[in-house]
Amino acid sequence: MTTRIKICCISSIEEAGLAVSFGASAVGLVGHMPSGPGPIPDDLIQKIATTVPPPVATFLLTSETSVNKIIEHHQRTNTNTIQIVDSLSDGNYAQLKESLKNVKIVQVIHVLNEMSVDEAVRISGMVDALLLDSGNPNLKIKELGGTGRVHDWRLSRMIREKSKCPVFLAGGLNPGNVQRAIEEVEPFGVDVCSGVRTGGKLDIQKLRSFIKNVMQTG
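^ that's the sequence the OP posted. Answer follows.
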């Protein structure tokens, strides 16, 4: 099975076009975050999303934690996928799906310890996919992605094996380690932000190498 590739922290129509031209299956568009790279205004997310051709997925990364606020955020951006980077605090996934029937729901799990495995497996039956990242939502200023850190792939493998839905692997991936990551975890897809950037900008050489290495593996 070909490993899907999601290029995150897209900041312009040009970057989105570049990612798609190199073979990305999805692009990540980052809304307001308490920390981390890549946030852009909602109106720019909406503009970029309209330029991305099907079947490439457009992921809105939202730090909202209530169902109503997540729906409102999506209404301002109109992506075809929502990536929830924090835990739901109000409402449930069934309510989200009922309100957004044609939108895929992806829940981020920040892989910290064995408890993350239990959380992921529990949620996996309620969403369309999981995305395993290396943030830490327990900090005073939450880290909700884009840390550039690798987490324990052994735990990610356990989640992937037990999950009821597809799993994306994120967290510190780059052209040099993505093949080993795929071999160890065997995810449905991989997700990269800082690993294909130089000075915050999408780096064509890194992007080409990353996608080439993924294609050679999966």
